[in-house]
Amino acid sequence: EVQLVESGGGLVQPGRSLKLSCAASGFTFSSFAMAWVRQAPKKGLEWVATITSGGSNTYYPDSVKGRFTISRDNAKSTLYLQMDTLRSEDTATYYCAKDGGYDYWGQGVMVTVSS
Amino acid sequence: NTVMTQSPTSMFISVGDRVTMNCKASQNVGTNVDWYQQKTGQSPKLLIYGASNRYTGVPDRFTGSGSGTDFTLTISNMQAEDLAVYYCLQYNYNPPTFGGGTKLELK
């Protein structure tokens, strides 16, 4: 059974950093691109980052480019999202998702950016 | 960026209804559109990929259609368990972009 379990969320002050993790199991993690998608409270879905299967290529929307860094450790089957210089508008539930159709999603982790 | 506009934003429906919702792309995205279902308090679930292909385990009352700029998700014989918000996603262009969602509510 495919499982994606996010962790690392919480309350953080504007301008500070936070690192999310997503532990994957039930599939060959190293064979698939992975992504982060977020959802602000009562809002829709927004793609945040994608990393290729080997980790050599990463992609971001303009809203987070230069502030967020997606990475992965294939030996640990774990995906990461380093979030720096956080803003109030980054407040959201962050989901990791298996790419190639976002066919599996984690349960999500809440990040609140507030002073 | 490619804007995906969903309509209507909400619908009041009854069990047994045939439900049709739309997604319009701001430019030609071919058939590179997925549909997702998100129930309250849950993560999104993939329903339809490539505009018209039902994902594994999805009931055949869900049908996706369209190409180019206009896409439709139809639920025939609506069930109470189908109450949710439905999102379309285009992945033809970077960045991938979601529509704003269509929320199904009971009359």
Entry keywords:
heterodimer, A: 115 residues, mainly beta, 0% helix, globular, B: 107 residues, seven-stranded mixed β-sheet
Greatest chain-chain interface?
A-B, 16 and 20 residues
Structural class of chain B: mainly beta
Which percent range describes the beta-strand content of chain B? over 45%
How is the biggest beta sheet of chain A arranged?
A: 7 strands, mixed
Q: Please, what is the average pLDDT of chain A?
A: 97
Oligomeric state of the chains present here: heterodimer
Sequence-ordered SSE layout with sheet pairings:
The complex is a heterodimer of chains A (115) and B (107).
Chain A: E1 3-7, E2 10-12, E3 18-25, E4 34-39, E5 45-51, E6 58-59, E7 68-73, E8 78-83, E9 92-98, E10 104-105, E11 109-113
Parallel strand pairs in A: 2-11
Antiparallel strand pairs in A: 1-3, 3-8, 4-5, 4-9, 5-6, 7-8, 9-10, 9-11
Chain B: E1 4-7, E2 10-13, E3 19-25, E4 33-38, E5 45-49, E6 53-54, E7 62-67, E8 70-75, E9 85-90, E10 97-98, E11 102-106
Parallel strand pairs in B: 2-11
Antiparallel strand pairs in B: 1-3, 3-8, 4-5, 4-9, 5-6, 7-8, 9-10, 9-11
Description:
The complex is a heterodimer of chains A (115) and B (107). Chain A is mainly β. Chain A has no helices and eleven strands. Chain A is globular and about 40 Å long. Chain B is built from no helices and eleven strands. In chain B, the strands form two sheets. In chain B, strands 2, 4, 5, 6, 9, 10 and 11 form a seven-stranded mixed beta sheet that branches. The radius of gyration of chain B is 13 Å and the shape is globular. Chain B starts with a strand and ends with a strand. The chains are: A mainly beta (115), B mainly beta (107). Chain A binds chain B through residues 37, 44-47, 59-61, 95, 101-103, 105-108, and chain B through 1, 34, 36, 38, 43-46, 49, 55, 87, 89, 94-101.
